C-alpha cells in the first residue's frame, strides 16, 4: 500500500532551518504517521516502506517520474521482448544480477540472497500483508495455506530460480502489473543476516514456522541490513525517531546527505513551529493547513502533481470480530453495533448518502480536489470520468436507514466508534462530517470519532476489530489492478480482512489482470469502477493532486506518485 503522496490531500514541505544551513549533509524530516515495522517483507504501510526504500533495494526501479518505464537496480537489465529477457509468451522474466554490491554489514550480495529474498517475500505471507501481490502471478494461489506446505514451497522454488547469473521468474499466466510490483516490493535482504537474527534459514522443512509472524516476532522488525544508500543507525520507538546514516560503500555514488533524522510529529502545529524555528528541513503537511506554511521565507511550492491514491476512504467491516471487542459497545443496536452491521447494504448506502462531499473538499482540501468516482484515481489508466459517484442526499440516507435490518436500525439506533489516523487533519474532518451527517438524521444515531496512531489502527484493523474507519490506499504500483483488487477482490488487502466478497468482481479482476488488449482491459475496469459505487464496500470521498513544498536550498527532491514521501538518495542541500 504500498507504497505516497499519491492522490491525498497531503504534501511534503521542505524548509531550510537556521541550524541545518550550517550542516548541508544532515536532513531533519518530520512525518505525521507512525512507523509500523522495518521488515521489508512484512511492512505494507507508506511510512514503513518509505524507510525501507532508503535502506533496501529492489531488482528494478521506476525511471524518474515515469509510471511505466523502469531502470536497473540490483538487476543489470530490465526484461523486455526487445532485449530477449522476457519470453514471447509473457511467462518468463530473466534478471541478470548485479553481484558484488555489498550489504551494510560488509557482506557481498549473492545470487542466493536474491532468490532467498523473493522466496521470503512470497512465503512470509502475513495476514493482510504484501505477499499476495506476487503469490497469484507466480504460484497461482493467493494464500500459502491454499495447498500443503511442501507443494507451496516446491511451486515457489520452481517459479523463482537462479540460472546463469540471472534471477528467473516463471509465471502461471501473463500478469500485466509484474514489473510495477517488482519496482516497489520484494526488496533484497541478506539471507545470512536474517538467519543469524532468528529468521527463516531458507530450508523447505522450516519455512512454515516462519509464516504469518506477528509484527514484533519478525526477525527484521527493528533491525535492518540492506544494500541501499542509507543504513539504519537507530529506531527509538518511545521518542518516535529514526536515524539513518549514509552508506559510504554504496555501489553507486554515495548520497550527498550523510545523516537523516526522521521524527514522527502528529500535530501539524508542532511541525510548523519546528519548521519556523529552524529545527526541521522537511515535514508532512496536510493541504488544509498549507497556507500556514506558505509564508515561510524561501519556500517554493509545486502543486498539481499526479496522485495515485484512494484517499480518506470510509471502510466498512462486514464481519467484525466480536470477542472482547470494545469497539462494538454492547454488540447490539442501541448502545453499540452488531458484528454484521455493515453486511447490510442499506446501512453502507445510508452512510454513503449521509456524507457531504462538497463540504469535505472545501474544508479538507481547500477546494483543490474533486469527488472520487470509485477506487481508481483520475490520473490512472482505466478511470471512467463519466461514472456517477454517490450524491450527498440526507433524504435518501434516511430512506436507506429505514430499510436497514427491516427497520430495526431506525427504530433502535446505534452507537458507532470510528477511528482515523492520528495527526491527519483530512481524515479528522472526514470523520466529523460523517458524524454530523448521520447524527442529524436520527437522535438515536451516535458516531464517535477517535484518533489512533497509525500503527495501532493497523493492528486493530488486522485483528478485524474495527467496525468502520477512515483510511487510504496508496497504490503499490501504477496499474488499475492495484486500485480495484484491494477493495473488491475477496482476497484483496481490505476486502479479505473486512469480509467483502463478490464473485463477479473476483472474476473481472482476474480477467483484467491477464488481458493484453488495452481496450478490453479498460472496459473491465469501467465496470469494476461502477460496481465499487453500487455495492459500496467503502465510501470513496475525494480525488486530489499532490503538492511538494520546499526551500530552494533543498534540491533534488524527486517526485514520483508511487513514492510521494520522496527518495532521499537524490536530495542535496546548498549551504
Which keywords apply here?
single chain, 575 residues, alpha+beta, D-Maltodextrin-Binding Protein, domain 2, Dipeptide-binding Protein, domain 1, Dipeptide-binding Protein, domain 3, 3 domains, eight-stranded mixed β-sheet, three-stranded antiparallel β-sheet, 22 strands, disordered N terminus
Chain-wise SSE layout:
Layout: E1 10-14, H1 18-21, E2 26-31, H2 46-55, E3 60-62, E4 70-72, E5 92-96, H3 111-124, H4 132-139, H5 149-159, E6 160-163, E7 166-170, H6 178-182, H7 191-196, E8 230-236, E9 241-246, E10 259-264, H8 268-276, E11 282-286, H9 290-294, E12 299-305, E13 309-316, H10 345-354, H11 357-365, E14 369-371, H12 394-403, H13 408-412, E15 414-421, H14 425-439, E16 445-452, H15 454-462, E17 468-474, H16 481-488, H17 493-498, H18 503-514, H19 518-535, E18 538-539, E19 542-544, E20 546-551, E21 554-555, E22 572-573
Parallel strand pairs: 1-20, 2-10, 2-11, 15-16
Antiparallel strand pairs: 1-11, 3-4, 5-7, 6-7, 8-9, 9-10, 12-20, 13-17, 13-18, 14-19, 21-22
Helix pairs in contact: 10-12, 11-14, 16-18, 16-19, 18-19
